[in-house]
Design brief:
Layout (H helix, E strand, L loop, with lengths): L2 E11 L3 H12 L4 E4 L5 H5 L2 E2 L8 E2 H14 L4 E2 L3 E7 L2 E6 L4 E9 L3 E3 L15 E2 L2 H4 L7 E5 L3 H11 L4 E5 L10 H8 L4 E4 L4 E6 L3 E10 L2 E5 L2 E4 L3 E3 L2 H5 L23 E3 L13 H22 L14
Parallel strand pairs: 1-2, 1-8, 2-5, 8-19, 10-17, 11-12, 11-17, 12-13
Antiparallel strand pairs: 3-4, 6-7, 7-8, 9-18, 14-15, 15-16
The structure holds flavin-adenine dinucleotide (FAD).
Length: 325
């Protein structure tokens, strides 16, 4: 356990797209940022091929995140490969403790910790993510031209995902454990009904993912057209995601009904000196993508810069770029 006396201007929690972009912007504002995270790259790094990040016709998500990191490293942003387990605000100073028991302080903090995807909990689910198993229709639908795909779930995300997928795939099966839809918006259900190549298997659950080195089908808990086995080129698991709000709760932040951190368009929370960006926030509604996360990281860093410019770094001993107030 160590107490790292030298305080930072901004503590950035999360090594994903929003965290790295915040780090880049903060460093270019001549702040003294530090970025934390035991896992490199966030969801983008494990999301497989990215075809909708401007500037790249296509790029592997892991390679894209390596570029994010390279850019932060160019500005010598320290990267601490530890998770933050607690955060407290004392006077004008924020103190975080990592899973290794190390303590760091900063004048401001940006929470960029993303969301935890809900999973089916089936064998191969993690292993085949990006090889037939996906959690994001917006991201991966165009890869399924002419295919047969399944969508697991019955909420708005599942219905909207199925509508999008039906524009690429030949056949889309929605596999839903309940006997009817109750949660999707009426407009989305109307769109779904208008798609001739979508079929909904109600009261049905996926019990097994099948394939060799990637998904080639699923086993259902009740037969469809006489067989429990359904051949699929891809399966989209759209059963929700939980924002990681443990630190937000510790810092007393406001959460909305979806448990997302409430921020304004500049990444400000209701607590001065505390900012948030990316998928953990309500900032871009349902459109949670690498580009929106990155943009919010830039906005949050700008807000942190303005905050520290005005307030100074009151916990600073050697802060670079700001005089202790
Ligand atoms: C399978 C899949 C495919 C996708 N494909 C695309 C695509 O093609 N195009 C696209 O634009 N978007 C895609 N997305 C969405 C995109 O990946 C996310 O919107 C984006 O990664 C969100 O970035 P973020 O920084 O907000 O969060 P994340 O990427 O989730 O990063 C958050 C990071 O914070 C870390 N963390 C959490 N808690 C702590 C803590 N206490 N201390 C330190 N670190 C912590 C996490 O480990 C993680 O590394 C995809 C998502 C998935 C799941």
């Amino acid at each position: 356990m160590a107490n790292h006396q030298e305080p930072f201007d901004v503590l950035i929690v999360g090594q994903g797209a929003s965290g790295y972009t915040a780090a880049l912007y903060a460093a270019r504002y001549q702040m003294r940022p530090v970025i934390f995270g035991a896992i490199f790259g966030g969801e983008t790094a494990t999301g497989g091929l990215i075809e909708n990040y401007p500037g790249y016709l296509e790029i592997d998500g892991f390679d894209l995140m390596l570029k994010f990191r390279e850019q932060a490293e160019k500005y010598e942003v320290p990267i601490i490969s530890e998770d933050v387990v607690s955060a407290v605000q004392r006077d004008d100073c924020i103190e975080v403790t990592t899973n290794e028991g190390n303590v760091y302080t900063g004048a401001s903090i940006i929470l960029a910790v993303g969301r935890e995807r809900r999973k089916l909990g089936l064998e191969h689910e993690d292993e085949w993510t990006g090889r037939g198993v996906s959690y994001c229709s917006t991201c991966d639908a165009p890869m399924h031209r002419g295919n047969a795909v399944g969508v697991v779930g019955g909420g708005d995300a599942a219905v909207k995902g199925a509508v999008l997928l039906s524009k690429y795939a030949d056949k889309v099966y929605i596999i839903y454990r309940r006997d009817r839809f109750t949660r999707p918006e009426a407009a989305n259900l109307r769109q779904l009904e208008a798609r001739p190549n979508v079929e909904t298997l109600f009261s049905t659950t996926v019990v097994e993912l099948t394939g060799e080195n990637g998904l080639s089908g699923v086993v259902l808990d009740r037969p469809y057209e006489g067989s429990a086995e359904l051949a699929l080129d891809g399966i989209f698991i759209e059963i929700g995601a939980d924002p990681r709000v443990g630190l937000a709760r510790q810092l007393g932040l406001e959460l909305n009904g979806l448990d997302e951190i409430v921020v304004d368009q500049f990444g400000k929370t209701r607590v001065p000196g505390v900012f948030a960006a990316g998928d953990v926030t309500n900032a871009s509604g349902e459109l949670k993508q690498t580009i929106t996360a990155a943009a919010q990281g830039a906005a949050a860093a700008t807000s942190a810069y303005e905050y520290v410019s005005v307030h100074g770094n009151r916990c600073a001993v050697h802060a670079i770029g700001f005089e202790a107030a």
